[in-house]
Each structure stands twice: as structure tokens, then as C-alpha cells.
Write a structure and sequence with these properties.
The chain is α/β, with parallel strands linked by helices and 258 residues long. The protein is 45% helix and 18% strand. The strands form two sheets. It has a six-stranded parallel sheet, with helices on both faces. A four-stranded parallel sheet has the order 6-5-7-8. The two termini are 25 Å apart. The chain binds D-glutamic acid. The site of D-glutamic acid (DGL) has 16 residues, from helix 3.
């Protein structure tokens, strides 16, 4: 494996890319942020599957020899289909995050995710298969995606208040582990953690990268990362700078709508 293709609807995938890059110093990466169609979480499954197909196709056209779906919503809607349809390895983030949550938790588990991820039942099925009698809470938190895409920082009142409102249903419950079941949400992990002191947070990108660490260590490329987007966004460019210290100015290429 030399070049790993990574896609998400937008900024969130950068949190997964960061986790992968840390464990794969020699791999090449090509990242696609589908900013022309973000957010994915408000759409139905067939629509998200068609977006995911075109994203993966683009990455393969750039020479990717493995695909990471750096998006919980697209993992829920498209992982099985892409695994069947493509000749390269395809990885998603939901099973690794659910497994990590069950490993860490001794009480209830909550999952913050997009509307489509919650509706898919993907986390619920995976968690119940791992621990059938567990206490689970599934929280649709779609508006956080738009705040993060607009570049609203996690310390802004708007962001904190939105997190507080979404987390209200689990206050006073015996939740000890919270899955950030959308790859955008690690960018608000400080705000979320301060609202839920003592609760362990699971980052789905970190969970996947942890499971792939051996494969990632052996990947052999030149350590390059190409950043592609389907539409320009200043918040995306700022997030690249923040999450990848070695990214050169102007390194984000706009490839147009897919
Ligand atoms: N980052 C995404 C996820 O992990 C998708 C957010 C969206 O586009 O709605 O679910």
C-alpha cells in the first residue's frame, strides 16, 4: 500500500487524516473534502451512497490503492457497497469506534452523530452485537456540522450552547463513554468534555487508525499529502493549517463538483 485515499463531506475528515498520518509516516495520502455537497447527514441513504461512490471513484483516479471513509454518515450508508464494488481495501469508522467504546465503558454509552447516521441504526446494531444488554443513547446533532463548516470555534457561545442542548438528554444518566460518531465532532471535543466531566470520549478516526496501525506503519510512499476539495472554503483551509503543520500555503486544490 502506497497511497491512501481519504474522503469526507468536509472538514471532519481532516481529524481522521491527522490520526492516520501520525501512524503512517511514509504513506502518501490523497484527501477529498466534498464541500460542494456538505452536509451529508441530512440526506437519505441512496443519495449518500451515490456521493460516496463518486468520492471513492475520484480518489481511485488519483492513484489511491486503499480507501478510508473518514465519515460516519458515509460509512453507515456505503461501506458494505464500496467493499463489494471496489478492488482495493475499504475501511470505515463505525465498527472501530463502537469496539473502542465497549472496551472503555463500564456503564452507559452515548453516541453523538448526524441525523442520517442515527437513522441508519448502524451504531445501535454494532453496539448491541458487541454488548447486547447495554444502556445506549443515540443523539442526532446535525447542526454541529454546519457550525464547524462555518469555522465557528468551540469556545464560541453559539457552539457551547448547541452542544449543551444536544447533550441535555443524557445529563443525569449513567453514561460513562461518549462516541463522537461524526468526524467533525473531535473539533468540539474541548467544549463537549467540559459539559460532561469524567465521561470518556471516543474519536472514531483515532479508533480506526489505532486498529490499522500495523498496516499504516508498513505503508511505503514519500510521506506526501494532497488536499482536494469540490468547492473552496476558507474555514477548510484554516483547518488544514491547524491540523497539518507541514501543509504548504495554497496546497488545497479545488477539483470542482463531482
Ligand atoms: N463528518 C461526517 C460524519 O462523520 C459527515 C457530516 C455531514 O456531512 O453531515 O458523519
Amino acid at each position: 500500500m502506497k497511497k491512501i485515499g481519504v474522503f469526507d463531506s468536509g472538514i471532519g475528515g481532516l481529524t481522521v487524516l491527522r490520526a492516520l498520518r501520525r501512524r503512517a509516516p511514509r504513506a502518501d495520502f490523497v484527501f477529498l473534502g466534498d464541500l460542494a455537497r456538505v452536509p451529508y447527514g441530512v440526506h437519505d441513504q441512496p443519495t449518500i451512497l451515490s456521493y460516496a461512490r463518486s468520492d471513492a471513484e475520484f480518489l481511485l483516479s488519483q492513484g489511491a490503492d486503499a480507501i478510508v471513509i473518514a465519515c460516519n454518515t458515509a460509512t453507515a450508508a456505503a461501506l458494505d457497497a464500496l467493499r463489494e464494488e471496489l478492488d482495493v481495501p475499504v475501511w470505515g469508522v463505525i465498527a472501530p469506534a463502537a469496539e473502542e467504546a465497549v472496551r472503555l465503558s463500564r456503564g452507559g454509552i452515548a453516541v453523538m452523530a448526524t441525523e442520517a447516521t442515527v437513522r441508519s441504526g448502524s451504531y445501535e446494531r454494532t453496539l448491541r452485537a458487541l454488548r447486547p444488554g447495554g444502556e445506549y443513547h443515540f443523539l442526532p446533532c446535525q447542526k454541529l456540522v454546519s457550525l464547524i463548516e462555518r469555522g465557528v470555534p468551540e469556545e464560541a457561545e453559539e457552539a457551547v450552547e448547541q452542544c449543551r442542548a444536544y447533550l441535555a438528554p443524557i445529563v443525569g444518566k449513567s453514561v460513562d463513554t461518549l462516541v463522537l460518531g461524526c468526524t467533525h465532532f473531535p473539533l468540539y471535543s474541548g467544549a463537549i468534555a467540559s459539559l460532561l466531566p469524567g465521561v470518556k470520549l471516543v474519536d472514531s478516526g483515532e479508533a480506526l487508525a489505532g486498529q490499522l496501525s500495523e498496516i499504516l506503519r508498513e505503508a511505503s510512499g514519500e510521506g506526501r499529502t494532497d488536499y482536494c476539495v469540490t468547492a473552496r472554503s476558507e474555514a477548510f483551509e484554516r483547518a488544514v493549517k491547524r491540523l497539518d503543520g507541514s501543509a504548504a500555503p495554497g496546497c488545497v486544490r479545488c477539483v470542482g463538483a463531482l
